[in-house]
Amino acid sequence: MLAHEIVKNIQSGQVSPQEVVSASLQRIAQLEPRLHALIRLNPQAEQEAALVEQRLARGEPLPLAGVPVVLKDNICTQGLTTTCGSRMLADFVPPYSATVVEKLRQAGAVVVAKANMDEFAMGSSTEYSAFGPTRNPWDTERVPGGTSGGSAAAVAAGMVPLALGTDTGGSVRQPAALCGVYGFKPTYGRISRYGVVATASSLDQVGTMARTVQDLALLSDVVSGYDPMDSTSLEVQPQFAAALQASSRGLTIGLVKEALTVGNSAGVLEALERFRSVMEAQGVRFVEVSLPSLEYALAAYYIVNTAEISSNLARYDGTLYGLRVPGDDSTTTMMQSREHGFGPEVQRRILMGTFVLSSGYYEAYYGKALRARARIKADFDRAFSEADLLLTPTSPFPAFRLGEKTTDPLSMYLADIDTVAVNLAGLPAMSIPAGFEGHLPVGLQLIGKALHDEQIFAAANAFEQATERAFARAAI
């Protein structure tokens, strides 16, 4: 059942929040052994559902009344372990909840579980979790994408109708594409990062996932908005649900030339052509635009990303919190704690980031990456002088097989080639289900101007309605 249907049925008394949560937990019990989408269940979920019913009886307005939600396990939940998919935080129980969690609970949502993820949100396949890989509901021999793969798989499999992930370089959008659901990354600052464990602070954003645009808008309205606890938070009123009433007629969508040349699979190219045909029938105009600096985006991203990772993860030193492996002195303790607490991909990125920030190399690498980042943003600004929205693939190919890229880090990094530039520029973007390649879903990415997030929802909704949700359905 979809989120908006659950809310309607609960508010009309046709079903209770406890019944909805119980059904979600039963679905999880049925599918979780095959998918491993989750790290842990919330043992208080059914009690929280009962409290939602009491709040409804008091007449409280609850836009997500009784809706089961899963959270990526780098979003802090008071009293419930938050691991970031890492041995380093395997026993970490936060003393507070993230702002987005508080907003969900205020809206009547019930957090039923924490979702599996690539360790500390580093990866593109959810194979780099210390708790084992997640499998794609469409084909359990394939990856769900990453790093929010557990969240995407849970929504795609119908375990829950809604999920939160985080998106540092495509970590909501890419798994959404590979699992056939909607994934939205907002303009930087529109959703609070307070209580979200940092990976790369200038890139990280909380993102939303759902199986319909209507549900995605409902969730995005609830978790967006200004938060004084986040110094990067923007004072912008969310209007996502209202945007669904807007017509897409008259919109201009720019086809990004550099993203449509080589490397895209047949199913992706077919989805692009279908999207164009469907939207032109809705009165949308298409033009070709160019982002000349896009070729530098992946390199610039992995320098900025690793530099900020090196800084943010310095706190895990075996002293203050996290795993502690005692040694003969403080240096040995730190080295042993990091060796046993961090997996190979996290260690690799810390080393890369430390190198690009080191004396003698800072300007050659980090300084140059920052200049490339500025050029990328300027190119986006020029493109948006010609178009209201931009269109690219979300991923150049559908879900790949488990183990196919884990031995080749550069190949894994290339899975993010269509998404990282959006984070570097701080722009909003959404992956929409737009087709299939064989039995595997394919996603396309709509990119909007900063603070014009709602315009993306209007276009995505027009496509969904025109195709009668043909590409957004539960996998199992």
From TrEMBL:
GO terms for molecular function: ATP binding; glutaminyl-tRNA synthase (glutamine-hydrolyzing) activity; hydrolase activity; transferase activity. The keyword Protein biosynthesis applies. It catalyses: L-glutamyl-tRNA(Gln) + L-glutamine + ATP + H2O = L-glutaminyl-tRNA(Gln) + L-glutamate + ADP + phosphate + H(+). Keywords: ATP-binding, Hydrolase, Ligase, Nucleotide-binding, Protein biosynthesis, Transferase. SUPFAM superfamilies: Amidase signature (AS) enzymes. Residues 19-456 form the Amidase domain. Belongs to the amidase family. GatA subfamily. Allows the formation of correctly charged Gln-tRNA(Gln) through the transamidation of misacylated Glu-tRNA(Gln) in organisms which lack glutaminyl-tRNA synthetase. The reaction takes place in the presence of glutamine and ATP through an activated gamma-phospho-Glu-tRNA(Gln). This is Glutamyl-tRNA(Gln) amidotransferase subunit A. It comes from Meiothermus ruber (strain ATCC 35948 / DSM 1279 / VKM B-1258 / 21) (Thermus ruber). The lineage of its organism: Bacteria, Thermotogati, Deinococcota, Deinococci, Thermales. The gene is gatA.
